[in-house]
Amino acid sequence: MTTTASKDQFIGGGAYVLQPRSDGHRSGLDAVFLAATVPGAATGLLYDLGSGTGAAGFCCAARAPDLMVRLVERDEDMLELAREGCDLPENRTFSDRVEVLSADILMPAPAREEAGLVANSADWVIANPPFYLQQKVRSSPHQHRREAHVLEEGDLEAWFRLTAMLLKPGGQMAIIHTADALIDVLKLCEGRFGSLEIRPIHPRLGKKANRVVVSGQKGSRGELTLLPDFIVHDDAGNTTQAAAILREGKGFSDLETPL
Description:
Blueprint (H helix, E strand, L loop, with lengths): L4 E6 L4 E6 L8 H7 L7 E7 L5 H9 L2 E8 L2 H11 L11 E5 L6 H7 L6 E6 L4 E2 L9 H7 E2 L3 H12 E12 L3 H8 L3 E12 L6 E8 L6 E2 L3 E5 L2 E2 L1 H7 L13
Parallel strand pairs: 3-4, 3-6, 4-5, 6-9, 7-8, 10-12, 10-13
Antiparallel strand pairs: 1-2, 9-11, 10-11, 13-14
């Protein structure tokens, strides 16, 4: 292992994640907000697609004690850090419910099941795909960071195909993306997921949303719902709602009632 790692606390110490200090993607707010779509009462099997070193999946496992989690990542250095993260004593309350899978979202169908990506097996799938198209950004010179942040044209659809393939009928999905990708995300949900919920994430009150979290149900024909804006920061730091998720390990469903 050549990657120098830091040990970072998530959800108020509910989970600890090993992350590369330099050459590689470091998880933060996006991973925690994605995990917050999964309620603490969730059961069954969850796949975390594009898991990196495990931040979102670890947070889900820490918050939902009856949930099994499979981390899906192609970067071998990130996978090694995820495995080492499972061995941390701070994560012992959930590590036996986490499995680390080496798999590429774009791999051909025959190789999927061998890698542990089993059709119609998941109750939950969460996804944090690369946000940027190769043709529209200047890519990082660091391979790990570039692969975590940049997709080729058309590759995002493969993430949605795989998500639909993994989920059982009625299973739940959630994806986090940039706000300007919302139209593309909704188009890719068509024919796959319904009862969609869109949650805009704003860095501050009065600032435009820079992220959206979209969740839905496989095979549903339910209507789309635009949820209230979620504000991350105020003048004092994190808003009360953001602090509840980031530091107390709450989920979005917990915020429907007064904290």
